[in-house]
Amino acid sequence: MSSSPSPSLSPSPARASRLALIVVGLCWLAVLFDGLDMFIYGSVLPHLLETKTFGLTADQAGDLGSYATFGMLVGALTAGTVADRIGRKKLMVGCVTLFSLASGICAVSGSIEVFGLGRTLAGVGLGGLLPTAISMVSDYAPRGRTAITIGMLMTAHHAGGILSAYVAKWLVDPVGWRAAFWVCVVPLVFAPVLAKFLPESLSFLVAKGRADESRELATRYDVQLPAAAGKKTAADRWDALVGLFRGGEWIQTLLYWLASFGGLLLVYGVATWLPTLMRAEGYELANALTFVVVFNLGGIVGMLVAGRAADRFGAPRISAIWFALTAVGVFLLGVHMAQAVTMLVVFLTGVFLNSAQTMIYATVSIRSTPDYRATAVGWTSGMGRFGAVFGPWLGGQLLAAGNGDWGFTAFALAGVSSMVFIGIAALRSAKSGALTGSERKLVTAH
Questions:
Q1: pTM of the entire structure?
Q2: CA-closest candidate to residue 92, choices 70, 69, 75, 105
Q3: Of 122, 183, 308, 352, which shows the fewest CB atoms inside 10 Å?
Q4: Is the dihedral angle over the CA atoms 81, 316, 158, 117 positive or is it negative?
Q5: Do the beta carbons of residue 294 and residue 346 sit within 8 Å?
Q6: Tens of pLDDT along 330-351?
Q7: How far apart, in Å, are the Cα atoms of 379 and each of 136, 237, 391?
Q8: Beta carbons within 8 Å of 71's beta carbon, 6+ residues apart
Q9: Is the pLDDT of residue 71 over 90?
Q10: Which residue in 105, 101, 127 sits closest to 115, CA to CA?
Q11: How far is CA 272 from the centre of its chain?
């Protein structure tokens, strides 16, 4: 069923802004809790290893870190299908509920197996929440400000990382590591708030033919209804995927996938092992956790500046440069320097690392045709998730083999590989024609 035009010819900026504020605010809090739950394992990991909780070894710790990222892979790949059936609002509520309860499983666990189950279930919720929240704010963002609104949303993920470091600093030594995971259960009380105040996605309501609900919501806040899109069949989706490999496109597609694999290996490898590796470099636990704070502050700054840099110089170029700078920064973290210098390096690494991966998605979006764009970005993100699973495991294997000094070097090499792959892809694509300014859209995903 097609939707009617906007309920009013001139939507009220005040009421539209109020709706955007409600949606972005609630989604920001949900993603904040997502970041807290994601980073809390890395923040308490040095304590778990030092106290040999559950008899935990470094290689087992790497496996546990990969359980969460594997769950995120499952959650991210199924989120779109589930959201199409039950709606984005219900899926977000379900994801928050799932990762909150899963943290409770971790808090009461008495064995590695139960703890691992909790982290895997948490990962499913974490992986499903982020793309759904991005879709929600895209629906309600003020016209012409979608990219900056998504960038603001992504700052919540890094704010959650900062919060995880403080939770670990304040609770782990005096109370115990379980207290940190009990804090991650607190978002459970936020789920009813989300269910009551978050509106359903207008795109979902229109797609489902729920015209009365969508029109009532649009009228209440004086915003435009999205046009009804034609329903894609399984054959359409398969044809879009096959289209990524037709002719010489298969080379380009694989280059993007390899770049995304290295980028997310780097992102989640560093996120999991940064405190532990810094501890191995001789820093006190409190200082190692401070590095987590500084790293995520850099991530917030990076998300806010990446779009502007890409608009001016082009997303492919910025992605390659950002990965090169990330590789230098990560490598330097393995060199014991004055603490003030190390703090600066950690901050700058946070700036470049997280937004470098974002620029891969932006590049894929820019270089793809409209018919294949969503498929291209989705599969690039999905293939990158395998790197997210591999990164935490790799760090654990290096530490278990007594090669912790190689941890930062290995992650730096992943950054170099992504720089090479995205650089080659950009050079090959540049031969097919110049980009127009209107094509430069920032696509944010993790």
A1: 0.81
A2: 75
A3: 308
A4: positive
A5: yes
A6: 999 888 888 889 999 999 999 9
A7: 20, 12, 19
A8: 119, 120, 121, 122, 123, 124, 125, 126, 127
A9: yes
A10: 105
A11: 14
Cα–Cα distance for residue pair 395/400, rounded to 1 Å: 9
- Is 385:259 a contact under the CB 8 Å cutoff? no
CB-facing half-sphere around the CA of 291: CA atoms within 13 A: 29
The SS3 of residue 176 is coil
Contact 160, 39 (CB under 8 A): yes
Q: Cα 279–297–403 angle (5° rounding)?
A: 25
Judge whether 152 and 140 are in contact, CB under 8 Å. no
* Across 150-176, average pLDDT: 90
CA angle 444, 221, 3 (to 5 degrees): 75
What are 276's two structure tokens? 């532990």
Tell whether the model's pLDDT for residue 53 goes beyond 90. Answer: yes
Angstrom CA distances, 273 to 54, 147, 269, 284, 370, stand at 19, 30, 6, 15, 38
CA distance 299 to 322: 12
C-alpha 224/C-alpha 10 separation (Å) is 9
Neighbour count for residue 423 (Cβ, 10 Å): 19
Residue entry with tokens 């708030």:
193
Contact 103, 152 (CB under 8 A): no
Residue 84 and residue 140 in contact, taking contact as beta carbons nearer than 8 Å: no
Q: What is the identity of the amino acid at 26?
A: L
* Dist CA 444 CA 446 (whole Å): 7
